[in-house]
Structure formats: C-alpha cells, structure tokens
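Predict the 3D structure for this chain.
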Amino acid sequence: MDFSAHSILWILLIGLVIGAIAKLLIPGKDPGGCIVTILLGIAGALVASYLGQAVGWYQPGQPAGFIGSVVGAILLLLLYRLLFRRGA
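Done. Predicted structure below.
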C-alpha cells in the first residue's frame, strides 16, 4: 500500500472531523474522552482506507471517503467501548 504525504495529511484531517462526527452519532461516556475519540476517528479513516484499497474500492494511495471513514470510526469506537468500559 502506497501512501503519499498528501494522502496521509488528508487522512489525518478527515480523521479529526470523523472522530467528532462519530462521537456525535454514538453519544455516551467514553473511557478516554474526546481526545481518544478523535484518535479513533483518525484510526477509523486509516482502517477504512486500508480495507477500501484491499477490496478495490479505492486506488493505491487514495484515502477513504467520508462515509467509509465514519463507518470505520464508529466500529472502532464501539469496539473501544466494549474493551475499556468504565467500572465494569
């Protein structure tokens, strides 16, 4: 997988926005707060880019789209909440 500096910067910027949107769509207390949610958004964008390229939805070096990134971030946020519940 070939990521250029431009596509990595784009993934990071989109990830910041996506993390905030995922937090709005899946409200509740997160064990890590807003910063962790934003980091999960960035990771969601990276995961969506990688998986999208692996299945042929995106060309090599092309970042994930908006919807794919939101879905990736929401999945990671839900997984994070399952693994790191407060007081469980």
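The chain has a mean pLDDT of 77.
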